[in-house]
Amino acid sequence: MIEVMDLTKRYGPTTAVDDLTFSVRPGRVTGFLGPNGAGKSTTLRMILGLNDPTSGTVSVGGRAFRERPRGLRHVGALLDAGDVHGGRTAAAHLAVLARSNRIPRRRVDEVLADVGLTGAARRRVGGFSLGMKQRVGIAAALLGDPPVLLFDEPLNGLDPEGVLWVRGLFRRLADEGRTVFVSSHLMSEMEHTADDLVVIGRGRLIAAESLERFAARGTGAGVSVRTPRAADLAEMLTAEGARVLRDGARLTVTGLDAGRIGDLACRHALPLHELVARQASLEDAFMELTADSAEFRTGETR
Known about the structure:
- Mean pLDDT is 91; it is low at 298-302.
- The chain starts with a strand and ends in a 13-residue tail after the last helix.
- The chain is built from 10 helices and 13 strands.
- The strands form 3 sheets. It has a 6-stranded mixed sheet, sandwiched between helices. A 4-stranded antiparallel sheet has the order 11-12-10-13, covered by helices on one side. It has a 3-stranded antiparallel sheet with strand order 2-1-4, with helices on one face.
- Helix 2 (90-100) crosses helix 3 (106-114) and helix 3 crosses helix 4.
- Strand 11 (243-247) and strand 12 form a beta hairpin.
- By secondary structure, it is α/β, with parallel strands linked by helices.
């Protein structure tokens, strides 16, 4: 488990992380979301002891990560796929990490096979594509078979097959009881991958809850109805406690489900030409709830 308590990081007058408190539980894939500049990477670096917090604490498995002498046995992390010496082969890079953490050499071959790079093991990393470098980084994170794994934008550069593979990998790791913490800006992938979300904006916590609960906060969920008697149906649904927005013959209804709307229309002999339930979208909820936290907005004049 990762436990973050009252975590703050300041750089001079700039507060990058502001009093964050949240937990990341084992057996779950937790997505870490926020607009650009929200403080996600800074938070991950403090979890790993790479940056010192101004105040607050972070523990991994009940201890600060810096207190663990063989770190890769406890936490595996991918923060920057390009942070590898380009002159080394993939196997040599992993072998150095294995030796420094007293990990058996056989694990190098095992994790290279896991990420699909056995055939490229003796090639220099400098000639790899971004997607291949991501796979090397994921292999390094898996090297010590750790109970906790952190990934910062792990899908960058991956092709569709690679994205599906990573999605399955994260699910498998969580099902094995590991703690999996994934920072990403791809809402569609988080919808397919994450069980829980930690969402921050301008360094502050916006939400720490299940993906379903967070997505339900968006206003995109509802029922779309088209009828030639829109005014009559709107009046009836409003009387039943629904919120109704009308655009000609089309109504957008929240507060009643599609089945209930259909039953009421039938009872009052109101014809329906369309009745479609719309599910809550993670992207809609994210955009709405982080709107005031975005550092950069397209078309904004400062």
